[in-house]
Amino acid sequence: MLTYLHVKNIALIDELEVEFDRGFNIMTGETGAGKSIIIGSIDAVLGNKVSKDFIRKDEDSALIELIFQIQSIEVENLLKNLEIEYEEEVLISRKLSSNGRSIFKINGQVVSVTDVKELTALLIDLHSQHEHQSLLDKKNHIKLLDRYLGDQVVGLLSSLKGLHKKYLALKSEIKEFQGDEDARKREIAFLEFEVLEIEQAGLTPGEDEQLEQAYRKLSNIQSIQSGLALVQGLVLGHEDVLSASSQISKALDAINKVRTMDATIQQLSEQLEQIDFLMVDFGHDLLHYADHLFVDEEALSATRKRIDLINGLKMKHGNSLEDVLNTYRAKKTKMDQLVNYDDNFKKVLQELNVLEKEMTSICRTLTSIRKTGAKALAERIIDALKDLNLRNTDFQVKMGLKETFGIDGFDNVEFMISTNVGEEMKPLIQIASGGELSRIMLSIKSVLADCDEIGTLIFDEIDTGISGRTAQMVAEKMADLSNTRQLICITHLPQIAAMADHHYLIEKNATQERSITQMRKLKQDEIPNELARLIGGAKITNAVQASAQEMKLLANDIKRQTK
Question: Which of 56, 118, 433, 510 lies deepest, with the highest CB count within 10 Å?
């Protein structure tokens, strides 16, 4: 359930905070007051695109936050996968910048837009005017049917998705195998050249780093010798200069004379002994290393050539030696496949055949489940349409087969409708009016609401094209739907507004400098006045006021009967 909305610096909104509640939440307001901005703000947090002018004028950034109250195993598992601590509330936010960038967060943790979409799909279903049009696109009908079927098809679709990815990869391989024979021979020759070039180099992992270290030493022998000579003089001494080692030995003799007089001196003496031993070892190692240092021009030249060879291969095949070796393995594998064309082609065909059989089995199972589900869905939608004053409407979920495999199987699904007795069934796009489309969508939503755990349904002007008795029936249907989940709805119709458990007014207040959209929850004694405005328009008479009062009382009676 959506409990809180915070919007800052969006379009006409300076800053707005709203708390929503259970049941039926209604938003009303004058045309142009900013109702669409509220819905657009919620839609933006769900991960959908926004226009460039969405951020308030003269502002560099905007912020939208939603808080949901949740009790869902699916949500809990998803949050665990995202390594986000599960709590009874989840805060989802989106910060928009004027440079076009957005930052999404879940409970304060930065996440991807994909993560947000996956989470919010379990929490909220937002029906906008755009979704009216999506209902007319038959490509979306199979998604709605599968959503109705829920767990019956989720596992099958997941398996099919993975297999379909392998299927496309194998088809791509086959296409390459079926290419021009001369082109295949040319590619083999080219690959042989590249593979041989890398093979002849005799590369080993990490070799480039070792060569660079060796080159640094070989090219700086004289500098190393000079530096070590200075160290040798200081440590081992020379001519009249007393060595550091001798100095330490004298110090050790001095401290040993008094070491038995105090425990601390005993410890210091032992430390100095260790230093003396280390100094002796250091002197031996230093002399040994210095004695074996000499300028080797031949080794220096060979190292330089080897480094140049490896760098040349890096320029051709990657930024690192590891990239070069990976390229070699990939090209060698590709070359072997092309050389052993017949065997590999047969192998790929066999793999494809096995995969197609597995996919066909899943698709047939999906088809069987969908056929049964299509009839049940159609029956439930017809029943729902009767509740919305479409008693003579017939609805059908038509199924056919595609010519090829798809990620959702090989079923074609299309919603068909007849709105009058005796008329033939036709696709939605050919027959449904605006008012009919709104009611069909509401029917589908009400049926799907019983099949998933989505706690919040949002409707943006579901009342398009309806009035009178039909509007009353739509209002009652929505009120009934709100008994089992939270509904948030923008409406222009008093019949729907009267059914609200919680009524919010969206207003636009203009100052000398700019206009600001605000939203507040109406008190019970304010609601009849807003209903009267919806009924009577600009001029509200006593009769209109009385009608509004009566409408609200009637709505309350109806809700009491359905709860």
Answer: 56
